[in-house]
């Protein structure tokens, strides 16, 4: 009856007999997950502390070396522009779209960026983040929330921070947007 | 010390004291999942059987009505072209990019499509699918594998089928590519 | 010869004769473009000025009505959380993830948000933006740059602003992330 | 007045004076375009002809070498499963999810795939494609249409073909879905 209706040739019987075996589906999934985002945020904080530690122990050259590793591993500068607005950058150097501007921000010691004192050199000892919301869209995830950093004296700095993470082909997450700002002071 | 190094104004103390409370992150996730894809494949099979049942019970007008509902709910014709290559379509009418061509394929009775006998009217009673692989990319998922359909006489038809499903804003999955073909006959 | 090599049945001749006609490809494109992003940024500024004008001309109720239209058309609150960190929001109300918090920020007059004086009510007369960089990924685009607003007295306010725009199924762009902050004051 | 209304500190004046200079926006765009898709389709056809030519001139080893280059450059096997349903594959070997199955299909000479006679070895001389529709979604594009191949005797083979191309980080397009089938024969 199928043959009459659907004009299926006789070879279908063979295909039916063969079936597709017990092959289970292989799955490729390029999407980013909330768990990956949290791990990347945690790694960012740990990296900042590592740069601080390296600076304290070994000086600026080793700290810069570490910062370059962090930038290359955790940011998307190798792929193109990064939308980076650091907490303490301002004026014509507010946005650090290229890698050299980001490096100057983190470790200073660059005469092209005279206002940069090296944010990652400030003796950071611990880190925590609190996402207000997470937005996941394909291989890109956005977060906005508070980040807290504590220094060697136990003083805490809080910033308002938005990030966009892009998952690359190797499964690593890279920061492609990073907007950080000091809390607004209403009574100021 | 933070004040000296980072030039943080005194109002930070207030912000620190306030904290962000116990707000947990809200998550928006636009991505498609493998489970959603399987559910959509299951639903496609059930819909095909429903059109067959409707046709047997109530005739072509009710069957067409049901088919239109299925097309509008499960395919992306409302959003634009659908890349549909039905199993038994050929020649200049091989590709059913617009809704009317898809409707003709499923329920026939359209003089503009004289070769269409109505694929969904063929008394289908059961359905199963076997994905060889699934590829997930953002809100779009691709599948390729075997689909089996059994009619009232117990005869099984097997087809090679690829689908692309797009997850819409309401969370529903829509077919935007559907390439179906009879198995190749090597000894033919 | 094709038949011998490829085991193609005779019916191929028919298909070849039919060809596919002169059908040109229909294209569905869900991606966002830089031009669409710029238009959305322009529209945001115009909407802010319209709310200011409405407030001056007709008072708070009309201004709120306008602000609600803007929120519903230009932001993604209808689809879920929006990652909104307004310029002048702080403390526990820093992030306006839900629509009511965004409305309070723009037009104030909400006792649940006592610090909100209504950012859109401040007599804004003109608007410009300057993107430092734009990052386009599927139906989502990120921008970071300066935005300038001028009030009735000719005084200009500048903010550092990052946005994420999501293109919806109707082709409209919706803000899903909006982080705005006052410029950092290095000498402070 | 701004200071009164918005509580903007005096340093804003400095920022306003500095401005953002004449920096124009840098744009990162990860999206795939229709032009890139057409170029990839053209390249696929050229590669097929090259394998045929290599086989005729230098034998199977050189042809296989070329085919491996093509697979590695034009398909996504290096990143994971590819949803490949070749025109003339059937039974338990219908789907060539892994690279070795694809290689066997194109150049044969693999005892694990006894039905494969080597599709790329069949003396192909020219190539054309005709997309019925193209669907673009982020870095992924789908096509469905006819592909025509002509051999040394001038005989043309037509197939119905769907592809999904994924744009990688280096900007190269890779095939992640490839469903090819002989035209259905209505009178058969």
Automatic annotation (TrEMBL), chains A, B, C, D:
Tell me which positions the record assigns to the signal sequence.
Answer: 1-25
Alphabetic keyword roster: Signal
InterPro entries, from UniProt? Answer: MICAH-like, NTF2-like_dom_sf
Q: What is this protein called?
A: Phosphoribosyl-AMP cyclohydrolase
Provide the species name.
Stutzerimonas tarimensis
